[in-house]
Specification:
It is a single chain. By secondary structure, the protein is an alpha+beta fold. It has twelve helices and 33 strands. It is elongated. This is LacI family transcriptional regulator.
C-alpha cells in the first residue's frame, strides 16, 4: 500500500485490487502512529488577511505537497501576547513549524524555538538558533528614500507598522540611513498599523505634516492612505507622493499604480519549505540564514515635488479654434421644464426638454463625504445632443462637484471641501468643513417683466432656499437660489447646432451676522483666488479656452473678461460651454490644463466683506452648444445675452 519495492510486484497488485474492491483507505492517524510522524507542518502568521502572508503560505504548500506533506495554518491576529501559545499548540499537532514575522521579543522567541523545534523563521533572524529567511527591508527603505530624494522630496512622513514588528525596525533603520546621506532631508514618524484601515485613518495626520511624500509600512497601509487622500481631494502624486512595501498583486492596479518594493513572497515560502524539509529529514542539519534583497518598482503614485505657488497653466495661446463640421441636430420645440416630486426627493429634481430629454439633474449633496463640504449641486448637465459638460468627484480633485457654489473660507469655515490653505503652513486638512442644507425646492414661472430674447421660450425657475452652517452646525447665512433654463433662439432654416441657456442667480443674505469671504489668494497663496459659482467640466481629449482677454488659460485666468468659453473635443465631436457674467464682472479663476473649470472669483485678491443684514449677488449665464465657437462668435453671443435685458 505504501509503494515500497521490497514487496513482490504480483502480491502488491493483488493487495491493491482487493483494497479497491473493498473501498479501503489507509488510516493517516494509524500511519502517523507507526511512523512517528504526521506528514503535516504548520505555518503561523500574524495576519492571514495580508496578501504577503498568503503568498508565503502558497509557496510553502506547493513545496510541501511535492514531498507528500500537508500544511496547517494558524493566525495570531497580531496578538503578540498569545503568539507563543498558539505556535506551541500548532506544533503539538504536526511535525514542524514555519514562523512568519513573529511579533514576540527576542528572549521569548529563543525560548519558543527550543520548545517547538524543528522550526524555520521567515522575516526574523534568530542568531543561529534555527534556519531563518530575512528580507533586507533596511536596503528596501533606503531604495525608497533615494527614489523620493531624486524627485525633489525633502520632507517625508513614514507610517509605522506594528510596534513589535522586526521588519518595521529594519525599515526605520533604512530610513535613518537615508537621512544621514542627505543633510537637508526630514523624515517624520507617524504610528499607523499593518492594514488598510490604519492607512485610511492616518490620512488627516499625514496631510497635517505638510510632507510632500509618504512611505507606508506596507502596501495595505498605502492603499488606505490613497483612499483617504482621494476622499480629501488630494491629488497623488501631484500634491503628495505615496510609496509602500511588498508589491502585493493589487499594487499595480491601484489608482494611481503604487510605487513599492517588490519582495519574492512565494519564493520565500518555497525556500522556507526546503529548509524545513532538510531539518525534518536530518536533525543534524545546521541552522542557516538566507537574505533576500527586494527591488524598487516605480509606478504612478510617486512624482516630482510641485514647485512654486499656485500656477497658471499655459495652453496654446496662438492656436485659434477652427470650426468643425457638425451634424445638425433637430432642436426641441418645447421649453425646458423643471420637475419636483411631491415627496420632495431631492435626487429626483430634473430639468427636461422635449420628449423627455434630460438636461440637468440636481443633487442635494447628502452623500458627499463631510470633508467635501456637503452642498446642493447640478450634475450631470448635458447639451441638447446629450454630451455631459460637468464632472463629479474626479480623481484630480475629489471635492469638485458639477455646478454649485463653493467657497473656501466663509468666516473661517470651508464650503469648498478638501484641504484649507493656511499662510506659512500650506494646504492642510482641517475639521472646518461647513454644510449647505436645502430648506425647500419649488418651481415658479419666469416673471413677465424679465424678457428672455426674441423667439425664446420663457420656461420656469427652480427656486431653492439654502442654509449655510459652519462646522459646528451654527447658521452663517441664507441663500436664495434661482435657476432658469431656456432654449437658445435659432434663425429659421439655420443649419447650426442648437443650444440652450442655463441662468443661475443666487443672493447670499448675511442674516446671522457679518460675513468675511476669503480665498487662498487672500490668505497668502498668489493666483489662487477661487471661490464662488464654480463649474467643473470633464477632462476630454482636447480643451481650448477663449475670452475677451485672448486665447488660452493664462489670458483668461485673473482677467475681467465678461465671458469665457471652453471648447472641448472628444471622439470627433465638439462642444462649447460659454460662461457669461451678466452683471458685476469679477476676475475669473480658471483652469484648463490641469483640469477644466472656472468661476467668477468672490475674493480674488481681497476679502469680500458683507455687513450684518447685507447681501451679495452671484450671477452666471451658461450657454451649452453642440458646436465649436470662434472667439468672435462667442463674443457676439455673450453680448446678445447681456444687452437689452435678454436675461
Amino acid at each position: 500500500m505504501n509503494g515500497r519495492s521490497t514487496v513482490d510486484a504480483t502480491i502488491a497488485e493483488r493487495v491493491r485490487e482487493a483494497a479497491a474492491g473493498l473501498s479501503y483507505r489507509p488510516s493517516n492517524a494509524a500511519r502517523s502512529l507507526a511512523l512517528g510522524r504526521t506528514q503535516t507542518v504548520a505555518l503561523v502568521v500574524p495576519d492571514l488577511g495580508n496578501p504577503v502572508f498568503q503568498q508565503i503560505l502558497r509557496g510553502v504548500m506547493d513545496g510541501a505537497a511535492e514531498d507528500g506533506y500537508r500544511v496547517l495554518v494558524a493566525d495570531t491576529v497580531e496578538d503578540d501576547q498569545q503568539e507563543g501559545a498558539i505556535a506551541l499548540e500548532a506544533r503539538m499537532r504536526c511535525d514542524a513549524l514555519v514562523l512568519v514575522s513573529p511579533r514576540i521579543g527576542d528572549a521569548e522567541l529563543s525560548a519558543l524555538i527550543a520548545d517547538v523545534e524543528p522550526v524555520v523563521l521567515v522575516n526574523r533572524e534568530t542568531g543561529g538558533a534555527a534556519p531563518s529567511l530575512v528580507v533586507d527591508y533596511e536596503d528596501a527603505a533606503l531604495q525608497v528614500v533615494q527614489h523620493l530624494v531624486s524627485l525633489g522630496h525633502r520632507r517625508i512622513v513614514y507610517l509605522g507598522g506594528p510596534v513589535r514588528s522586526a521588519s518595521d525596525e529594519l525599515r526605520r533603520a533604512g530610513l535613518a540611513r537615508g537621512q544621514k546621506l542627505h543633510a537637508d532631508l526630514e523624515i517624520l514618524d507617524l504610528p499607523a498599523g499593518p492594514d488598510i484601515q490604519a492607512g485610511h485613518l492616518a490620512a488627516p495626520a499625514v496631510l497635517a505634516t505638510r510632507a510632500t511624500a509618504a512611505v507606508a509600512f506596507n502596501d495595505l497601509v498605502a492603499f488606505g492612505l490613497l483612499a483617504g487622500l482621494n476622499e480629501a481631494g488630494v491629488a497623488v502624486p501631484a500634491d503628495i507622493s505615496v510609496a509602500g512595501f511588498d508589491d502585493i498583486e493589487l499594487s499595480r492596479y491601484a489608482t494611481p499604480a503604487l510605487t513599492t518594493v517588490a519582495v519574492p513572497q512565494a519564493e520565500l515560502g518555497r525556500h522556507a519549505w526546503r529548509e524545513l524539509h532538510a531539518v525534518i529529514d536530518d536533525d543534524a542539519h545546521p541552522a542557516s540564514s538566507a537574505r533576500f534583497t527586494p527591488s524598487l518598482e516605480v509606478r504612478g503614485s510617486t512624482g516630482p515635488v510641485r514647485q512654486g505657488p499656485e500656477r497658471v497653466h499655459v495652453t496654446d495661446d496662438d492656436v485659434v479654434p477652427v470650426l468643425r463640421e457638425e451634424i445638425p441636430t433637430v432642436p426641441p420645440t418645447a421649453a425646458p421644464t423643471w420637475s419636483v416630486p411631491a415627496d420632495a426627493d431631492a435626487d429626483a429634481v430634473m430639468l427636461t426638454c422635449g420628449d423627455g430629454l434630460e438636461l440637468v439633474r440636481r443633487d442635494a449633496g447628502d452623500r458627499m463625504p463631510k470633508v467635501h463640504a456637503r452642498r446642493p449641486y447640478l450634475h450631470p448637465v448635458h447639451t441638447l445632443a446629450g454630451v455631459p459638460l460637468t464632472d463629479v468627484s474626479p480623481v484630480d480633485h475629489r471635492h469638485h462637484y458639477g455646478v454649485g457654489i463653493a467657497v473656501p473660507d466663509v468666516n473661517g469655515t470651508s464650503h469648498w471641501g478638501g484641504r484649507t490653505f493656511i499662510e506659512d503652513v500650506g494646504p492642510t486638512l482641517l475639521k472646518n468643513h461647513g454644510r449647505q442644507t436645502s430648506e425647500g425646492v419649488r418651481v415658479e414661472a419666469v416673471p413677465a417683466s424679465r424678457p428672455v430674447g426674441a423667439g425664446a421660450e420663457a420656461g420656469e425657475v427652480l427656486v431653492e432656499d439654502v442654509l449655510w452652517s459652519d462646522e459646528h452646525g451654527d447658521p452663517q447665512l441664507r441663500e436664495e437660489r434661482r435657476i432658469t433654463a431656456r432654449l437658445l433662439p435659432q434663425a429659421p432654416g439655420s443649419a447650426a447646432a442648437p443650444g440652450w441657456v442655463l441662468d443661475w442667480r443666487s443672493t447670499l443674505h448675511a442674516d446671522h451676522g457679518p460675513l468675511e469671504i476669503r480665498s487662498p489668494a487672500t490668505n497668502g497663496r498668489p493666483g489662487a483666488g477661487y471661490g464662488g459659482l464654480f463649474w467643473r467640466l470633464p477632462i476630454v481629449e482636447s480643451t481650448s479656452v477663449l475670452s475677451a482677454a485672448g486665447t488660452g488659460e493664462n489670458r483668461a485666468h485673473g482677467s475681467s473678461s465678461p465671458w469665457v468659453a471652453f471648447v472641448q473635443r472628444q471622439g470627433g465631436r465638439s462642444t462649447t460651454l460659454l460662461l457669461v457674467q451678466p452683471g458685476q464682472v469679477r476676475p475669473w479663476f480658471l483652469r484648463s490644463a490641469e483640469y477644466p473649470g472656472a468661476c467668477p472669483a468672490l475674493a480674488w485678491d481681497a476679502p469680500l466683506l458683507v455687513p450684518a443684514g447685507g447681501s451679495v449677488q452671484l450671477d452666471l449665464v451658461a450657454v451649452l452648444l453642440d458646436t465649436e465657437l470662434t472667439s468672435s462668435a462667442a463674443a457676439a453671443l455673450a453680448a446678445d445675452l447681456t444687452d437689452g435685458g435678454q436675461r
